[in-house]
Write a structure and sequence with these properties.
Elements lengths: L2 E4 L4 E3 L6 H10 L2 E2 L6 E5 L7 E4 L15 H16 L5 E2 L12 E5 L2 E8 L5 H13 L2 E8 L11 E4 L2 H4 L3 E3 L2 E8 L4 E12 L2 E10 L15 H24 L8 H8 L26 H13 L12 H8 L5 H16 L11 H13 L3
Parallel strand pairs: 8-9, 9-12
Antiparallel strand pairs: 1-2, 1-3, 3-4, 4-5, 6-7, 7-8, 10-14, 11-12, 12-13, 13-14
Bound molecules: zinc ion.
């Protein structure tokens, strides 16, 4: 904790400007109490750790508020607090909100609206993340989750594969059809943006990375710009490359042989890996609804169409749940949306069957309009 009351109910905020000597004086002159439970606190001024307050005894509010905060968490809170102060957004550090029994790292006011800032340095289970988010929204507070950065090794700007694990993927943000992730690095005082994210499979995404120093950040936080039409071509080629890299071992290493539904469907569609049409294996809607790479269900969809003498033009939306059952894919709302969206894309491309030919240039243009330029 960085905040305490003294014996006169004065708020003490441990900011970076205090030297350790100044803090030693403060410690000698005052007693400190937890603003939440009023229990006495100890001011810890070690040589290594960032000075902070800690309960003398195990307290009820330990459950709400981690006593063993990481250095990054303490430092990040200080940096963000100071930055919000400079922006004159009236930040309150570690406020306890009794109505929802939550304690965000920071609370700020912007255009008469309240925002809770959570700087997350340890994995937060999805249930807790969802519950806390709901708590804030119920109290008419907009939560903003900032995750500790773990992407410092990625290079700037180029289109590249980015690994975002499942715990991290709960922090993905969506704006006008774009999916992105914002993280913060305390050492460099730098925001990292993983933008224009397209889900490939499992924890793999394709996207761009760029850095933004805290000093250049704005509030509301910057929303990364969308990929340009020109760069999208590069993006598309990387998707195709990923697809081909996926396909070869998929075929070679299949243990189920002829019982492999995917290989069977490919065979029935008279498709080979080298002749897979460019419109199969296209990630749509930037969603991570399916864990597997999209080529798996898209091949099944074409086989389904063939077996039922349908085309993307004639397949009724009501048949989609039946497709899931037929292909043994569990259906979720998000997955259903993805299949619906893919079918409408095929309609727009006037695709009739898996053996149709499509100009790459045309596909890239339509994909850019559908996936990027929307919103
Ligand atoms: Zn307490």
């Amino acid at each position: 904790m960085l905040v305490a009351h003294d014996e006169n109910q004065q708020l003490i905020i441990l900011q970076r400007q205090f030297s350790r000597d100044e803090l030693q004086v403060l410690k000698k002159q005052h007693q400190f109490f937890c603003p939440q439970c009023n229990e006495p606190l100890q001011l810890k001024i070690g040589q290594i750790r960032i000075p902070h307050f800690a309960h003398l005894q195990h307290s009820e509010c330990d459950n709400l508020f981690s006593e063993r905060e990481s250095e990054a968490h303490l430092l990040g809170k200080q940096q963000l607090y100071e930055w919000f102060e400079r922006l004159e957004l009236a930040p309150i550090l570690e406020p306890y909100l009794p109505q929802i029994q939550q304690r965000p790292d920071l609370l700020i006011t912007y255009q008469k609206r309240l925002f809770a800032i959570e700087f997350q340095c340890s994995p937060l289970p999805l249930e807790l993340f969802t519950a806390r988010t709901k708590g804030y929204l119920d109290a008419e507070i907009t939560p903003i989750w900032i995750v500790q950065n773990s992407f410092e090794r990625l290079k700037d700007n180029g289109v590249q594969k980015i690994k975002i694990n499942y715990t991290m993927s709960q922090y993905l943000l969506h704006n006008q059809g774009q999916c992105y992730l914002m993280t913060y690095d305390v050492k460099q005082e730098m925001f990292f943006y993983m933008s224009n994210l397209t889900h490939l499979k499992k924890t793999q995404y394709l996207g761009q990375v760029h850095r933004l120093p805290l000093k250049q950040q704005q509030f509301p936080f910057l929303i990364p710009s969308k990929i340009s039409r020109q760069k999208f071509e590069q993006f598309f080629l990387q998707m195709l490359q990923f697809r081909d890299d996926y396909m070869h071992p998929r075929l070679l290493l299949s243990k189920r042989g002829v019982n492999d539904r995917f290989l069977f469907a490919l065979y029935e569609l008279r498709l080979t890996v080298n002749q897979l049409p460019i419109f199969i294996g296209i990630p749509v809607r930037n969603a991570n609804a399916f864990d597997e790479f999209c080529v798996e269900w898209q091949v099944q969809l074409f086989y389904f169409l063939k077996c039922h003498e349908l085309t993307p033009q004639t397949m009724n939306a009501n048949a989609i749940p039946y497709f899931f059952e037929w292909a043994s894919f569990a259906m979720t709302m998000e997955r259903k949306k993805e299949v619906t969206y893919y079918l409408s894309l095929l309609k727009r491309l006037t695709i009739q069957s898996a053996t149709d030919h499509l100009e790459k240039k045309h596909l890239i243009e339509v994909l850019y309009d559908e996936l990027v330029a929307i919103g």
